[in-house]
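Lecture notes, part 5. Sequence design as translation. It can be helpful to think of inverse folding as translation between two languages: the language of shapes and the language of residues. The source text, in structure tokens, appears below.
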């Protein structure tokens, strides 16, 4: 059976920089940081007091207030970004056969703020103090479920949970669903909202978060810099509409890019630490290239996982060298987490969008705060200032706790 081609026809986002695609891209081009002091809760007793919050978010712009009250924050983000993506694609007005439209989203953690409120109410008031909608609000699958319910999409609908690789793996699952003829259209990407006392405390106990830059929040996320000390928690959603090529052409849909390849692997090594050889992420990248039928030299830009942790950045650098060989030293690489912060389960969706926009606009985003490169991170990370470049094919990779590795490749659409 001939494999069906898949293209991107819509995109939407809410994140720490902006609540739409255009303003997000302008902030990325300018090298702006969305990281600021945490305002969602009192951080008096916390060693980390900064994050990439979605600021001034008004869910009523995308859903009625009654509907919003039934949703956890991560689901609200998914609904907002999905509404944008569907409008962008033109599918908000009708999708053809709704039984052939799916929703496959990634999420790492679910509704932490709902869980925390429920536990407090249980402790203070007993079982009857727990709100009836607690479980339907907090579980991860309610993100895609709510999108499907709102738009009447009856195709595959589920949530991929592979920690920080969740959204990338969701995009890969959506790609394959369309390729094999299971779906014609899939709303995909990811969402997260874990900037809560429990979320921040949990990652602090793992010594994973930055604690050195509380007084200078915009400097806190500094991938590949020797002075980095941990990642910065972000939140938001990055949602894409993937569509079978002929389905898109028949309705005259805008085509941003073709989804060329997907690779997935597991370190099978440790719950939180990656395999020090870098072989797991390298394998994922090689598999994505193989799936796309491309050579390493054909990738013009890589949007790296680039978390700004002492462990990730040199290991990812090693993995890129293993996967790309000599081309690793010629290929521009950047971490947009330096600006958006780390959106956990939503990271891959956001970074897929930024990779596509880089190709569409001929501009490589910078890695900001890269002032003193780590000696073990010796590739071209586009430090501090973005640059113009013609890009025909781009890659985005993400790594997650548990050893999950996901990689996607996008290329310019050609008939």
């Amino acid at each position: 059976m001939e494999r069906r081609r898949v293209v991107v026809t819509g995109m939407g986002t809410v994140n720490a920089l902006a609540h739409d695609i255009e303003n997000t891209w302008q902030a990325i081009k300018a090298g702006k940081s969305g990281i600021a002091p945490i305002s969602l809760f009192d951080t008096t007793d916390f060693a980390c007091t900064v994050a990439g919050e979605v600021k001034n978010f008004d869910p009523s712009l995308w859903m009625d207030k009654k509907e919003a009250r039934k949703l956890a924050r991560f689901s609200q983000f998914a609904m907002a970004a999905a509404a944008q993506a569907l409008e962008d694609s033109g599918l908000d007005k009708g999708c053809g056969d709704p039984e052939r439209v799916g929703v496959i989203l990634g999420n790492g953690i679910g509704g932490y703020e709902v869980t925390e409120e429920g536990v407090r109410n249980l402790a203070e008031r007993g079982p009857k103090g727990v709100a009836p909608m607690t479980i339907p609000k907090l579980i991860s699958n309610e993100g895609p479920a709510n999108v499907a319910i709102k738009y009447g999409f009856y195709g595959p609908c589920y949530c991929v949970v592979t920690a920080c690789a969740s959204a990338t793996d969701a995009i890969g699952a959506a790609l394959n669903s369309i390729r094999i003829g299971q779906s014609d259209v899939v709303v995909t990407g990811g969402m997260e909202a874990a900037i809560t006392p429990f979320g921040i405390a949990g990652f602090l106990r793992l010594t994973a978060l930055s604690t050195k830059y509380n007084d200078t929040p915009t400097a806190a996320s500094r991938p590949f810099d020797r002075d980095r000390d941990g990642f910065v928690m972000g939140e938001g959603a990055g949602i894409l509409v993937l569509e079978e090529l002929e389905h898109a052409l028949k309705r005259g849909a805008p085509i941003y890019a073709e989804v060329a390849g997907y690779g997935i692997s597991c370190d099978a090594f440790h719950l939180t630490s990656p395999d020090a050889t870098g072989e797991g992420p390298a394998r994922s990248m090689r598999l994505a290239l193989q799936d796309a039928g491309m050579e390493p030299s054909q990738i013009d830009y890589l949007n790296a996982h680039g978390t700004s942790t002492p462990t990730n950045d040199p290991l990812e650098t090693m993995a890129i060298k293993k996967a790309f060989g000599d081309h690793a030293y010629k290929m521009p690489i950047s971490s947009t987490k330096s600006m958006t912060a780390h959106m956990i389960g939503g990271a891959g969706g956001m970074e897929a969008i930024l990779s596509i926009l880089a190709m569409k606009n001929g501009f490589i985003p910078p890695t900001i705060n890269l002032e003193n490169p780590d000696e073990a991170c010796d590739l071209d990370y586009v430090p501090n200032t973005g640059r113009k470049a013609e890009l025909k094919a781009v890659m985005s990779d993400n790594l997650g706790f548990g050893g999950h590795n996901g990689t996607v490749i996008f290329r310019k659409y050609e008939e």
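The translated text above is only one of many valid answers, since several sequences can fold into similar shapes. The chain is about 35% helix and 20% strand.
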